[in-house]
Task: structure prediction
Amino acid sequence: MLTLKKLLVLDLDGTLIDRQDRISPDKILALNEIKNYFDITIATGRSYLSALYFAKLLNLNLPFICFDGALISDKDGNDYFKCFMERYEILEILNSIKKDIALNVFYKNYSLVNPNMLLLGIVLKHWRLNYRIFYNQIYDFDVYKIVLASYNHDTLKKIENFLRNFRNGGYYLYPSAKKKGLYVIDISSRFVNKGKAILEFKKLFNYDFIVSVGDYINDLELLKYSDIKIAPIKSHKRVKEIANYLIKDFNNLLEILRKFY
Result:
């Protein structure tokens, strides 16, 4: 009988971890069972260092996807795929921001933050950053992602509209889950998303069957290219519309995956 090579792909925020960056004991127990039948990896919008922390915590041996698909790397720092933002775009974004905007420019192993971002200390803790201070000039253009944050929604909306003038995708504006009233724009290369990354992952490591679990709009492409699409019951409406299954918890996830052992 032919044995399929199976992969479970997990989003972090809203799926695997809670708002305090914790993984519940029941999820760990479920993953310990699933590991006997599926390989497991992470696909997140978070930085390499943040994804690395959880990969080590869960003892995951596969490479993982971070920066919303701009980087596939492993625990030893070996890169299997990477896509930087375009230089002209980085400069356009940096020139567009106002004084009250918090800025984070992500590289693989560190980030540049402005003083406004430092005031959002909980965000720095959340992202598990090795950061340096940004002083209005950039010299290294190997940028995977830029994050802008502000309590002024109208200001960020103007920046979003500005971005739409010269690109069609690769970013989204959303309310922060970490601080009430804070809004965030995530900006990565317009050529990447989690879906393209999982296709690359499938090609690199020869998987036959992929199950993905995600909850937000940056997971839409990931789910689109998966054989089985699973979403937590509190997921974004557009995610729930394409999911094959909705789950309340990881016990539900176990029930579904046992059908494919």
User: Anything to note?
Assistant: Residues 153-164 form the longest helix (12 residues). The longest strand covers residues 145-150. The chain has two domains: 6-82+192-260, 87-188.
